[in-house]
Amino acid sequence: MLPTTTHRSTKKKKWVIIGVTALIIAIAAVSIFVMQSKKKGETKTDPVSFEKVTERKLNNTKLISGQVKPGNIESFYADPTKGKVKDIAVKEGQEVEKGTKLFSYDNEEINLQMKQAELDQKMASMRYDQGKKKIDSLNKEIKKAKDSGAGKEVTDPLEEQVSELEIQQKTTELEKEKG
């Protein structure tokens, strides 16, 4: 019988230990709760004051003296390899926008090249006009030949000439656009 009494007493001890532990935890929780509520009760409140609101205009102007300087200043110089400066389109220190003409050069070689390009353009225009007239003339001949009942032996060579002239026209047209 001894073993069952020991077993009962160990069970009893366990329940006593659990009960005492629960009691300690409960007392600690209650004391923490009481301390927290005391701290909350001690919180100071600031006195509240009321003011009457009126509508008015606020002027906040500041006068500051100084100089305004641009963020980006660039200097440009004439390049003697491009020729002599012909004319200057702006004054020194003048503000300009991107793309504004500043100065121009007078270069004989470039002037000759420009004249040659203009002549080439005129020549291409003349060749184009002349080719157009030839094509129109050949088309009229083809129409007359067909209307008069001529066979393919007459119209085929004429149509071949028109095709060749149209190719030349396209080449001349490209030259005109290039110039």
TrEMBL record:
Membrane spanning residue stretches: 15-35
Keyword field contains Ion transport: no
Main location: other
Regions of compositional bias (Basic and acidic residues) in chain numbering: 143-155
Region (Disordered): 143-179
InterPro entries: HH_YknX-like, UPF0194_transport
Keywords per UniProt: Coiled coil, Membrane, Transmembrane, Transmembrane helix
A GO cellular-component term linked to this record: cell envelope
Keyword Transferase annotated: no
Any Pfam family: HH_YknX
Compartment(s) where it occurs, according to its Swiss-Prot or TrEMBL record: Cell envelope
Entries under Gene3D superfamilies matching the protein: 2.40.50.100
Superkingdom: Bacteria
YknX-like alpha-helical hairpin domain residues: 108-178
PANTHER family with a match to the protein in the record: EFFLUX SYSTEM COMPONENT YKNX-RELATED (PTHR32347)
Listed name of the protein: Efflux transporter periplasmic adaptor subunit
Organism: Bacillus pseudomycoides
